[in-house]
């Protein structure tokens, strides 16, 4: 039971450290205002005449591109910069417990921010009879996407002691994974890469899996995809930390 | 309680630590000395399980730090260099977090944190964010973190670095107070500290141990050990010549008032090392009586004080660690 207690202690500490700095509140306000603006004015929520949240969920992958790397960048980079990684990893905890604790804390933090968009859902329910399945599916997909971004952010944060480098790296990787299936990206590859590679890269893309959830389709394969991305990235984080703790 | 066995660490082509072995028993305070970059911090990081050794291991009360890391870490309290703690947390919350990881829950946890705060004299700042505290307090918070679970083995990397004399005194008093119940390793390059609190000294140079002895034994290796220092108002013309003629004296050094800072001159007489088979009278032990006899025979010398020097750790440290050309 030690491992659960330790992970819980880490989650509590990390969450508290988000809310002890004003950054958390800035994130929340900016995210909610921006999502509201994009949904209502750019996606023309009212003019579309449909009580659904497509225009709302459409923006999540792009908003997360900034929000998630920013929330993840300090997780390890700051521990390295301040040297607290030494105090932390000489406590009777395993690296896995710490990684899980930090990951879950950041995920809960992002989940909280996403949950604060509930007025948009209430508005839609008030205005019409939206497909509840699509809304629930949309939120689940959104959270899983955030988790996948976050696991990338964890890895880049573990690689450096500089938060800015971590932020930029994870933004670029996430952007690539987001766009990998899009024609402009595949077109670039088609000229020189074999067919199987182009398809392989396209299959790694976040987007097709995300879109399935928005339709209210909960496919086990999409869950498996997101969880494999997370496990892969967190495993990479573990390797990096084991090999370059003092770097 | 702590056994370090043939620890080695290489970073690429650099041998940071090569074959370091030693043991520390309960009640011992081991001073870990060496110039910067000698491998002190790397050794401590391997003992505490932060860095994996290239070869060798450390065993803490029967638990191997590599193969039984968690049980071993439970028995260690570690104060890393520069006292890294979470600056955004308050002292109370930080120690609460450490207590939770150390396995204390509920009321016991609260009591443990309060008790540690009192031991480390942090009561007045317990609700302040650590980042707002002075360096001395920050150091003590990290010290508190290492002590919270009352560990049998305590490893401290430069615990008094950067503190003012009063703060140093507090930390040293705390270490001395708990020394009897624990095995303690302290790295430092403040030699007065070693004399103040350590029962044994290990000197490390380029990753290897070059000395392992008590401070007294080490001082005995110093050039000045057994030398006799005379303080005189002025140096009479015949004094140096007469001292040099003693069979037990090897060399006489005169420090005039300008270099000693006071009104007096100091004359240091170094003993002749006792050679094997030599007459007993010519040994270092004979030096002081010889000089005393000489002083009595020359009432004109205005002698103010006379003492036998113990030798200085400083000299031994330099001799053992200075790069040889």
Question: Can you give a write-up of this model?
Answer:
The complex is a heterodimer of chains A (247) and B (325). Chain A has helices spanning 2-20, 23-42, 54-57, 60-72, 74-82, 84-89, 95-115, 118-127, 132-159, 163-179, 183-190, 195-203, 206-214, 220-243. Chain A is mainly alpha-helical. Chain A has one domain. In chain A, helix 7 (95-115) packs across helix 14 and helix 9 runs parallel beside helix 14. Chain B has helices at 40-47, 69-74, 91-101, 106-119, 135-147, 165-178, 191-197, 215-220, 239-244, 257-260, 287-297, 313-321; strands at residues 2-11, 14-24, 29-33, 55-60, 63-64, 76-79, 153-157, 183-187, 200-205, 208-213, 228-232, 249-255, 265-271, 303-308. Chain B starts with a strand and ends with a helix. The chains are: A mainly alpha (247), B alpha/beta (325). Chain A binds chain B through residues 2, 5-6, 9-10, 12-13, 16-17, 20-21, 82-87, 89-94, 242, 245-246, and chain B through 45, 48-52, 69-71, 73-74, 76, 78, 80-82, 84-89, 93, 97-98, 100-103, 105, 129, 142, 145.
């Amino acid at each position: 039971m030690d491992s659960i207690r330790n992970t819980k202690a880490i989650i509590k500490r990390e969450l508290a450290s988000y809310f002890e700095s004003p950054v958390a509140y800035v994130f929340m306000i900016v995210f909610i205002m921006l999502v509201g603006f994009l949904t209502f004015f750019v996606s023309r929520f009212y003019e579309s005449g449909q009580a659904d949240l497509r225009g709302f969920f459409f923006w999540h992958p792009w908003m997360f591109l900034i929000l998630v790397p920013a929330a993840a960048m300090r997780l390890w980079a700051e521990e390295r910069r301040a040297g607290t990684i030494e105090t932390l990893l000489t406590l009777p905890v395993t690296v896995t417990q710490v990684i899980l604790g930090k990951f879950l804390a950041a995920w809960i933090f992002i989940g909280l921010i996403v949950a604060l968009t509930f007025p948009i859902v209430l508005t839609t329910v008030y205005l019409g009879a939206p497909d509840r399945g699509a809304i629930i599916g949309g939120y689940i997909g959104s959270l899983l996407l955030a988790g996948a971004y976050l696991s990338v952010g964890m890895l880049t944060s573990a690689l450096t002691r500089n938060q800015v480098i971590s932020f930029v790296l994870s933004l670029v990787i996430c952007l690539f994974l987001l766009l990998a299936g899009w024609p402009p990206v595949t077109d670039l590859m088609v000229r020189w890469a074999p067919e199987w590679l182009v398809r392989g890269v396209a299959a790694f893309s976040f987007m097709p899996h995300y879109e399935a959830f928005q339709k209210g389709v909960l496919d086990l394969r999409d869950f498996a995809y997101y969880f494999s991305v997370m496990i892969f990235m967190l495993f990479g984080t573990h390797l990096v930390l084991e090999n370059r703790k003092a770097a | 309680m702590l056994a370090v066995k043939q620890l080695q660490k290489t970073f690429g082509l650099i041998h940071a630590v090569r074959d370091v072995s030693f043991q520390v028993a309960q009640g011992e305070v081991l001073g870990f000395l060496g110039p910067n970059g000698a491998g002190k911090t790397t050794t401590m990081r391997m003992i505490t399980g932060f860095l994996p050794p290239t070869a060798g291991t450390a065993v803490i009360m029967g638990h191997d730090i590599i193969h039984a890391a968690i049980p071993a870490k439970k028995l260690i309290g570690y104060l890393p260099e520069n006292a890294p703690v979470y600056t955004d947390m308050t002292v109370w919350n930080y120690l609460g977090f450490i207590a939770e990881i150390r396995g204390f829950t509920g009321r016991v946890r609260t009591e443990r944190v309060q008790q540690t705060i009192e031991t480390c004299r942090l009561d007045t700042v317990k609700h302040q964010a650590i980042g707002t505290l002075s360096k001395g307090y920050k150091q003590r918070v990290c010290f508190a973190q290492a002590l919270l679970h009352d560990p049998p083995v305590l490893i401290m990397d430069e615990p008094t670095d950067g503190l003012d004399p009063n703060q140093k005194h507090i930390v040293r008093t705390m270490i001395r107070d708990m020394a009897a119940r624990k095995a303690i390793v302290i790295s430092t390059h403040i030699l007065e500290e070693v004399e103040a609190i350590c029962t044994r000294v290990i000197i490390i140079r380029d990753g290897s141990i070059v000395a392992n002895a008590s401070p007294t034994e080490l001082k005995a290796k110093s050039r000045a050990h057994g030398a006799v220092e005379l303080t005189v108002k002025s140096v009479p013309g015949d004094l140096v010549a007469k001292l040099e003629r003693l069979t037990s004296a090897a060399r006489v050094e005169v420090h005039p008032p300008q270099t000693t800072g006071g009104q007096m001159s100091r004359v240091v007489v170094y003993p002749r090392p006792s050679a094997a088979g030599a007459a007993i009278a010519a040994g270092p032990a004979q030096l002081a009586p010889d000089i005393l006899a000489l002083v009595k025979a020359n009432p004109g010398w205005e002698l103010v004080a006379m003492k036998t020097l113990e030798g200085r750790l400083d000299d031994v440290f330099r001799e053992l660690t200075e790069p040889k050309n």
